[in-house]
Amino acid sequence: MTSANKRIDERKQAEDRLQLLLDVTNKVVSNLQLQDLLRAISASVRRAMHCDLVSVCFPDSELNRLQTFVLDFPESKGFIREEFFTSIEGSLSGLVFRTGKSWMGNASDILQLGLKDEAAIPEGLKTGCILPLVSRNRVLGVLCLGRREENGFSQDDIGFLTQVAGQISIAVDNVSAYSEIAHARAELEKALGETKRRTEALRRSEGYLAEAQELSHTGSFGWDVSSGEIYWSRETFRIFECEPTAKVTLELVVQRTHPEDRSAVQQLIERVSRERTKFDFEHRLLMPDGSVKYLRVVGSPSEEENGCFEFVGAVTDITERKRADDALRRSEGCLAEAQRLTRTGSWAWNLAARHSVYWSQEHYRVFGFDPEEGIPSDEAFHQRIHPEDRERVRRAVFAGREDEGSFFDVDYRIVLPGGAIKYIRSTGHPVLNASGDIIEYFGAARDMTEQHEARAALETAFEQIKALKDQLYNENIALREEIDRSSMFEEIVGASPALRAVLSRVSKVAPTDSTVLLTGETGTGKELIARAIHKRSQRSSRAFVSVSCAAIPSSLIASELFGHEKGAFTGATQRRLGRFELAEEGTLFLDEVGELPAETQIALLRVLQEREFERVGGNQPIRANVRVVAATNRDLEAAIAVGAFRSDLFYRLNVFPIEIPPLRERREDIPLLVEYFIDHFARKAGKSFRGINKKTLDLLLSYPWPGNVRELQNVVERSVIVCESENFSVDESWLSPQPLASEPKSQLELSQKLAAQEKEMIEAALRESGGRVSGPSGAAAKLGIHRSTLESKITSLKIDKYRFKSASASKNS
User: Fold this and answer.
1) Among 668, 681, 775, which residue's Cα sits nearest to residue 720?
2) Helix, strand, or coil here: 243?
3) Distance between CA atoms of 585 and 627, rounded to whole angstroms?
4) Beta bridge partners of 135
5) pLDDT 10s digits, 751-784
6) Cα–Cα distance list, 225 to 220, 242, 272, 298 (Å)
7) Do residues 71 and 80 make contact, with C-beta atoms less than 8 angstroms apart?
8) DSSP states of 92-130 as a string?
9) In the chain, what are the helix, strand and coil shares in percent, each to the nearest 5?
């Protein structure tokens, strides 16, 4: 190699080494993570020094071995690695670390030293160099380098590597210092954080304390006895209703104190200042608005090391508690007074103790025990119960306790020490805890002696009243019989033989339950006779129900007589009782019974035969205990002949017929009737008549009275209204001279004509429907009537519906 080339190589080597030092310096400045820093330096050293291995070792925490902290050895096959440990004793690396002196040599030199250090020069390397890392006269670790050729390191290399080791030492020392500073800073930050947390906790604690004081109405205070200074918490200021900026003094406390309590407060302040003892007392405050507060003040003495003496304590606003206590005392007083007034005592029996744990004062008084001696034993209590009632009381009480805690209610007697007997009613119920278990029984016992005595006296009085009532009833019966004998028919005016004959029949049939049929012209007084029958029957104390069969539409007559169920027809919004149910055990008067439609006749026949009926829309038979009195002005036999009235029903009604004579057949009664009506209507009109005009009387006697008594009544009433003279008179024009004698015949002819027309209509409908009665195409649907109604009319009109079926079959064939 020429000298020029040699100089170029030396210059290049010098530049590389200078660059190495610059790199090491830059990395020291830029990287404070020790392991990353040493790895970067090792790689740079290996490239600049053309080394095959660079490692850095440091003592571990036990200080008896070295750890390979960083290794840059690309050819390593795992014999040595990072975190490889080498003992300090007996190793070349340990020798350099202990002595602080560098070593350079070949692998054979290690054997001459008597050392065996596989990590110093690994397999494949022949030359090694180990330099101590020294900073501030301390050996921090060692820098190990290796090459494959022998004698690979010159003294020049050693000098340069010593400089590199020095830079590494500085880096390690700086990192250690930085770590210590960082650790110190972390500790400081941790301490600051802890201080901050404690400050926040203290602040929260103070907030919680203030909130707790506000919720509990309890403030705190401190009182330095030596200096006289007083400290109040925010809640204490609020209790005393003072501004937080106000200066607190003992004078302020005394000033706020109620005048009646100031002397006691001042004496307390003087005593505790002198004796330095704990205190706990209550007093009142008089607020600026005149209201009063109740306070409880508790304090405890405390002496500091410097000799200062103070009291610390709490001030609690107990106004609400005081008011609650006062209300409770009033309530207890009212309860005790209520128990005294009602003679009711209360008690409690504990399940665990198996003994009574509470008796009210009234309970002691009711059972005759002394409250001073305390609650008596269960045995002493049961001995006070009347011997005949003890077992019954025991069964009632224990049945209540054993039957899952049910209530019990029992009446019994007690015997007081003096022998007096009281009547008691005792009730009890269980008291359960949160788990639903019975813990005790609570109950009350009431002194029922006065009520029992009053009930006994009342029962005696009732017996006496009943006896007097029976006596009065018997006397009343006798008096009524006497009245009946003297005037049996005081409401029926007349003395004619025809009327007396009717009344005779009424007297005979009235005491029986026989069905009566009253016949006669309109206006003859059939309802008056029916009422007379009821009044003198055994049913006179029950209802008399009258029904005008002609005044009720045929579609509603069944509902009127027998009632209906809810929903039986349109408009039946609720159940309705019929006249038969209203007249139960009484009398039912069926006026104009001949006007009943055919289907109602069948139902009435069933009532008369079987004594039962069904409501419209119902299916349950109802028993009927009713006497029936029927009346009609029609000729029922003629109606039977034309099929307008059922013959079987007629015979059921005609058990005891009574025909009421028309007024023209008992003219002897007209003067009596006229006088009766004049007196009746004159009193109503406020008039008075001396007598009757003779001409008027003759006119009334000669008139045939087709309207009978009703027409006479109307004529007299009209005349009383218009008559202005003292003598009663009637306008002759009001009386028709022509009697209506042909009316019954005309009515019969009309009835026969209507029946014939009805029969023709039914036969035409049957002919069109082929003899079918029910169904959508049946005759009932065509006529717009109910099937049962049509069947009844077919039977009453004696129509053969089967002949229409055969005619229809022949036509179809």
Assistant:
1) 681
2) coil
3) 8
4) 138
5) 666 677 778 788 888 888 888 888 777 888 777 6
6) 16, 22, 10, 16
7) yes
8) HHHHHHHH---EEEEHHHHHHTT---TTTS-TT--EEEE
9) 50, 20, 30
